[in-house]
Amino acid sequence: MEYGLLKDIVLLLGLALCTLLLFRQFKIPSIIGFLATGIIAGPHALGLVSNIGEVEQMAEIGVVLLLFTIGIEFSLKELLRIRHLVLWGGGLQVALTIGLVTLVSVLAGFTPAESVFFGFLVSLSSTAILMKLLMDAGEMDTPHGKAALGILIFQDLCVVPLMLFVPFLGGAGNGLTDVVLISVKALVVVVIAHFGSRFAVPWIFSQVVRTRSRELFILTIIFVGFGTAWLTAQAGLSLALGAFIAGLAISESEYSHQVMGDIIPFRDAFISLFFISVGMLLNPTFVLSNPLIILAVVAIIIVVKFVVVAGAILVLKFPVRVALTSGLILAQVGEFAFVLSHSGMKHGLLSATTYQVFLAASVATMALTPLYLKVALPFAEKAASILSRLLPVFLFNGTRTTGVSHARFPMEGHVIVIGYGVNGKNVAKVLTGNGIPYLAIEANHLTVRSERKKGIKIIFGDATRPEILEQANISTARILVVAISDATASRRIVAQARSMSSAVHIIVRTRYIIEMEPLYALGANEVIPEEFETSIEIFSRVLRNYLIPHDQIERCIGEIRKDSYQMFRSMSKRNIHAVGISSYLAGVELMTCRVKSGSVADGSILRDGLVRGMSGATILAIKRDDDVVPNPDPVWELRREDVVILMGNPMQLSIAATLFESSAG
Prior knowledge:
The chain is an alpha/beta fold. The protein folds into three domains: 4-396, Na+/H+ antiporter like fold (Up-down Bundle), CATH 1.20.1530; 415-583, NAD(P)-binding Rossmann-like Domain (Rossmann fold), CATH 3.40.50; 588-659, Regulator of K+ conductance, C-terminal domain (Alpha-Beta Plaits). 63% of the residues lie in helices and 7% in strands. The strands form two sheets. Strands 3-2-1-4-5-6 form a six-stranded parallel beta sheet, sandwiched between helices. Helix 19 links the parallel strand 2 (438-442) and strand 3. Helix 9 crosses helix 11 (239-251). It is elongated and about 100 Å long.
């Protein structure tokens, strides 16, 4: 049928939209909504989709993109830190799971070959589901998140050897010989892919970024990701593993944050098709006819995987809470098990009935994964408390950690400086001189590369993208400074930043006064127009040329700023972010002054009313060493190096500042 695939995609996405809107009303996770969409649209229910095979191929793109972004987020250095989890944790988990499931299956009356194959299926967990949930919850960097990723990587590495063993279990193929040959071939291809992308990728991106073409940049991302995935697939490895390797290569470059921002929309669109395609495989009639069998299989899978994963993590000397949490969140069957199941049916290791039982149990464990993640930490806390009274103490003395955060610039209470031109550099220089942490975002790759060599904390990216602001930790930032000359981009950045953080204080540099009101409306706290500040600098220099005294010039500047900025601030009063006490303090500003040795204020006592009497400004707080005293007592004596926080209008503050300056100066 002409446009058959397009029709299927439209139907699936439309049905998913309705299902997710309904499920959201009951706070049911999106993944379960996608699985339900697949069940409803699948051939065993309404049969809305005719090209299931093509939908599954598009769904596999989602898995590839997911592993690609995980690789970008993770970095090769972080992977090396958790190599013990990948090799020993993953190895123990896969081997013990296969052994236990084989034992249970043999006792249930299945043949040894079938029992081992069941172990293959159950040993794999869902990278696609669990990694998406961990990323959405911000738990990728937690100990249990890293433990889960390490084990999942090993499982993905095992997919090909397990696939090659299936014909051997079914009585066909060369078994061990094929496994050894393909493993050697795969190892060579992985090494070539890694080192090729490690050296070639930075060069390719540096050439593309020079063109300043967004379209070309996105095409390069897709080429590198899918090209590496295709290369590893030619060696018999999974596409997803190749994508993960490509992501690792990009993670070490300065372009990683921008790549992440551009690829996430594609990933989210295609990964939804993966979950829908899994749901399509399930036969609801069979589930309703055999509920007890399916529930028993689900229970066995959960118990076996929980015990084995938790045990493997404990053997590696991790804390009990990490082991129990990891065990629970990995207690599901993975997407690659469906690939294995097709091969098993082909070689007579799965009958139609056992296939549907496996499918129903797998979908059930996948659907339960959001619940696992929600209850895992509270469950681990309670279980660890109970077990500590029953088991030997040495089991609870976990000493191993997963290493430091993989975030390149972990910080909080910092300043984000967008644009590292003249204005951005001046802001950064002052922040550095005063010991204030900051992170710069710059879209010029040459600037990023040269400044990184100097040790500057700077990332490459388009700050209008939420992913870039997220990488800059906007949720924990104190101030956002927009120091770029693009008015349109400034508005988009302010709107995006305000939607991501209601607490961050946004200061924007703009060229013209006419651009101020839209920025206030979008959420800016302060807007500095160059047009106005330039006029102040011009007339101050004119007055200096006529030898007008400095204090008189400062008084003129104070009067101009008071009148004009009072008018500017009125623009922001209509906006929700400006509502509060600040709306009642028009014309009032805060200023900090350091008490200099020999100044008028040095040695003065607050009750004498020096500052208030001579300037009209009010002392709100005093910082001495590391202590801050708000609303200080009248008996307080000012000493040199005290930092005084003053409140008043610009004129009052200008006069007050002279009281803290050294008379010798």
